[in-house]
Amino acid sequence: MLPRHVQRLGRDWITHWNGSQILTFNSPVSSSMRWAGHYPPWASFPLPISADFSANWRFPPFFGPWRQFQNSNWHLDNYTQSCCFHLPSPSMKSEGEEPLTKKRRLSAQDDTSGPEQETNLSNQKEVSCLSVAQNEEIHGSKKGTIKRHWEYFCQQSKTMKIAKNKGSDQSSIASEATFDFTVMSYNILSQNLLEDNCHLYKHCRQRLLFWTYRFPNILQEIKELDADVLCLQEVQEDHYRAEIKSSLESLGYHCEYKMRTGRKPDGCAICFKTSKFSLISSNPVEFFRRDIPLLDRDNVGLVLLLQPRFHCKANAAICIANTHLLYNPRRGDIKLTQLAMLLAEIASVASQKDGSFCPIIICGDFNSVPGSPLYKFIKEGKLNYEGLAIGKVSGQEQFPRGQRILSIPIWPKKLGISQNCVYEVKQQQKEESAGEKLEAAKPDNTQEIVIASEKLSSKLQHHFKLSSVYSHYFPETGIPEVTTCHSRSAVTVDYIFYSAANDNSATHTYQPGAEDSFCGGLKLLGRLALLTEKDLWTVNGLPNEKNSSDHLPLLAEFRLIER
């Protein structure tokens, strides 16, 4: 039971409030309620202040037990002038507001779908907000969702997709000679990295950032998209061991995992459905090299060689690679070296007996934007980096701070990788024939043959013919596609690259002279459409109620074309 003077205080407050904005001690707090940043020392909690509250109102003189307050000249209007706390109109959205920087940016682009701008921002001070998590426990909130549609590049693929949704047998539709499969690339946002970079998620409700909320959402996304191969980044090791691995295995996946080196608690995982593939080999790639100062970062990659279980030749294979390159926008030299190490491992794993490569898919978070030198190198197979500043390699910064020019060569000779992104040091089986005499006996069955060092060149090359699943811009409007969106930026950094079959009209560019370097290839049948930044801010960016990572999952369907 409250003291009488407190009860009367509550009644007096109610009489001065508009009917639509009544606040009592027993009523739930509005979902957009803000608390004053300053309050008198006698108060054990911040005081709610209405925008319509009379500026001349005073606490009644009988507000007795606090003599210090009773004898003071403190007035409520002295505080209302210095605080931005107010009760919103009932029509205000409860979705949660965007960061002010995002709001200003979108308003400049005539984005009318964003939240209403607050009035008199120049006269208001920034204050802390009531815990949104507590508000949602009382009221709940509207769960906004955005539907992503499937884009088809093949009519047969569309027919098969419809049949699959209806539960029909694909074998009656697809030819016995084809092998179709889907691949997803998804940065699921490590919980440790989320907590270490909480400034990127100021726009999010607190409870949406807990792993106990996020993991069920992520798992549900994986179930709904139902990809045959998953390439996951930022997979936290303790979560992987405790629940991610077992959850995916229960869905029919076999999981391979590579944790980052050093003290980093996350890594990359490739998971594939055992009903579609069998594992030939698993090859982790560590980008950290203790003996090379340039390579002092703990990023990793993972390269799998998979064999389709049916509809293919006995020796058919597909190489799947997954990586998460260094983020630092000012260290393009490290990014390019990490990429070269990954490509060298892929060249080693995907190499066939006849000297060609099996079909290749490379997924991951490359921390580089479309059109950047690193992106062009992957797609075009060549890069002349002479005079290129290290801050411009990834294109992450509009005004790069890294101005140092890339050295020639970028990485030292002892890394053992050539400018063609292949291993320079190869192991060759020692061959002996009957009656052949060797000049000297050798204790090992292998010997290292070091390829002659190349002339110093500023030109990087690789021998893969790679295309991007996504075009990165919407053709009708030219608006960029977005794969990640948080408080600081909304850009494309995630990709699915693949070795395209020669007749694949859906791809964009081919590497000249590489037509005969592949044993078959992949035909792109369809993809899950991406979204714009404006689309994502209609559901308060990422993460949100339904999407529990700051990245979107990428998904594509391929058909294996054998030569």
Question: What does this entry show, briefly?
Answer:
Pfam families: ANGEL2_N (PF19339), Exo_endo_phos (PF03372). The chain has 563 residues and is α+β, with helices and mostly antiparallel strands. 21% of the residues lie in helices and 20% in strands.
Give an overview in words:
The protein is an alpha+beta fold and 563 residues long. The protein is 21% helix and 20% strand. The chain is built from twelve helices and 19 strands. Strand 15 and strand 16 form a beta hairpin. The radius of gyration is 30 Å and the shape is globular.
- Helical region count? 12
Class per helix and strand makeup: alpha+beta
Q: How would you describe the shape?
A: globular
Q: How many strands?
A: 19
Strand order of the largest sheet: 1-18-19-2-3-5-4
Distance between the termini: 84 Å
Mean pLDDT: 76
Largest sheet: 7 strands, mixed
User: In what range is the share of β-strand residues?
Assistant: 15-25%
User: Which residue ranges are poorly predicted, with pLDDT under 50 across at least 5 consecutive positions?
Assistant: 8-142, 170-175, 427-435, 437-443, 445-454, 505-516
Radius of gyration: 30 Å
Helical content (DSSP H or I, runs of 4+): 10-25%
